[in-house]
Known about the structure:
Blueprint: H1 2-28, H2 39-53, H3 64-81, H4 87-93
Helix pairs in contact: 1-3, 2-3
Amino acid sequence: MAEIQLDHRARFLQRIERRAKFLKTLLACNLGVFLPSEEKQRRQAIEQVVRMTARHSELPHLSQDILAEAYTILLSHLEEMQRVLPHDVQYRNRIKRDW
């Protein structure tokens, strides 16, 4: 049973890494994904992407720690993309960071 859980975890994290690789490709082309302005909306949107990346049969086998790890991976790539968006978008997002 532990083998099955590790297998589900490994396949899920591989899919997350492929999504992150795609985001890196977009960033290399100076493209970015617009994030919602409110922190709660951003969190919900990224969590939804994480859950939709997991196959339905895998969800019962994935712990909250694995989902949180996937969330962190995607969040880091999406936040990195914000620096290529126009400054008015960054202001509207209320992201208070020095890009």
